[in-house]
Design goal:
InterPro entries: AAA+_ATPase, ABC_AA/LPS_Transport, ABC_transporter-like_ATP-bd, BCA_ABC_TP_C, P-loop_NTPase. Keywords: ATP-binding, Nucleotide-binding, Transport. GO terms for molecular function: ATP binding. It holds the Pfam family ABC_tran. The chain is an alpha/beta fold and about 300 residues long. It has one domain: P-loop containing nucleotide triphosphate hydrolases (Rossmann fold). A hairpin with a 2-residue loop joins strand 1 and strand 2. About 30% of the residues lie in helices and about 20% in strands. The chain has ten helices and ten strands. The chain binds adenosine-5'-triphosphate. The site of adenosine-5'-triphosphate has 11 residues, from strand 2 and helix 1.
Length: about 300
């Protein structure tokens, strides 16, 4: 039964409502409240240790919150186990790769179809379904390779294909672009937009600011477990608190010189995406120009 205060029909796809997670004395998530809507791509960003993965664990059912609620499709799922959320249409990929290494890429997707369909899967997916999915995520050429022999970026796309085999209404993607090169990341961004255009909701934890700023409709920023800003990419880029906490910023530079801080910010500034998280560059600059904007593994 729906417990949404304004009724299930108009409820956001996902609502995280004043969620708190404490690990002993550490407050990993502190009253986090945000939504992700169907048909949109939502980014969840923030510095290392900000609580992003813990939020994902609460949403997907791996972590019980100390307080607060998670609603999915208008229903309170806070106490629901992972498989029930999955059945209701929640799919997740992980930072670590979960595929079966000794199986081929194609067989990994076949297994994912079987798992999602369960006993209802009396009719097994045809090779056509599987190959169409591999094609959709752009890894057809690896179909017959063992999953443990493919590049990391390709393996992440395989994770996505396995997730899509369950036809999820909400996709939770944890750093999906790591390991992809620039052109693969561009294609991946197009795929995310396509998936959202089909009516799916996508919530993504991602450090590649070009991707986040380029594909997200809405971004929520976590810092020390709290949401410090929510808005469009343009709003987030201009937010001084976000600049300080996460995006390139130096205290020596007056705030009016921050990207887009003034009402008269130029069109060039409005559209620029050359922002990377603090700590991702060696030079102390106001707004750190991104080189490919992907953070090296060692500063994550
Ligand atoms: N199981 C746990 N036990 C104790 N502390 C934890 C646990 N999981 C996470 N934490 C702490 O909670 C905080 C948030 O961690 P979390 O992994 O959610 O951050 P994150 O934003 O995902 O970081 P990253 O970008 O590095 O993945 C950190 O201080 C972390 O050390």
């Amino acid at each position: 039964m729906s417990d949404h205060p304004i009724g299930g029909a108009h409820a956001p796809l996902l609502e995280v409502d004043h969620v708190v997670v404490q690990f002993g004395g550490v407050t990993a998530v502190n009253e986090a409240t945000f939504v992700a809507d169907a048909g949109t791509v939502t980014g969840l960003i923030g510095p290392n240790g900000a609580g992003k993965t813990t939020c994902f664990n609460v949403i997907s059912g791996l972590q019980k919150p100390t307080r607060g609620k998670v609603r999915f499709r208008g229903r309170n799922v806070t106490g629901a186990p992972v498989h029930r959320r999955s059945k209701r249409g929640m799919g997740r990929t992980f930072q670590r790769l979960e595929a079966f290494g000794s199986l081929s890429v194609r067989d990994n997707v076949r297994v994912a179809y079987d798992i999602h369909r369960g006993l209802a899967g009396l009719v097994r997916p045809g090779a056509k379904d599987i190959d169409a999915l591999l094609d959709r995520v752009g890894i057809s050429s690896y179909a017959d390779e063992r999953a443990d022999s493919i590049p990391t970026g390709t393996a992440r796309l395989l994770e996505l294909a396995r997730c899509l085999a369950g036809d999820p209404k909400l996709l939770l993607l944890d750093e999906p672009s790591s390991g992809l090169d620039e052109s693969e990341t561009d294609d991946f961004g197009d795929l995310l937009r396509d998936l959202a255009a089909e009516g799916r909701g996508i919530l993504m934890v991602e450090h590649d600011m070009d991707l986040v700023m380029g594909v997200c409709d809405t971004i929520h920023v976590l810092d020390f477990g709290s949401i410090i800003a929510s808005g469009t990419p343009g709003e987030i880029r201009r937010d001084p608190a976000v600049q300080r906490a996460y995006l390139g910023y130096s205290d020596e530079v007056p705030e009016h010189e921050l990207v887009g801080a003034s009402a008269g910010a130029s069109a060039v500034e409005e559209t620029r995406t050359d922002l990377v998280p603090v700590g991702a560059a060696t030079e102390a600059t106001t707004v750190i120009p991104a080189v490919g904007a992907t953070i090296p593994e060692d500063v994550r």
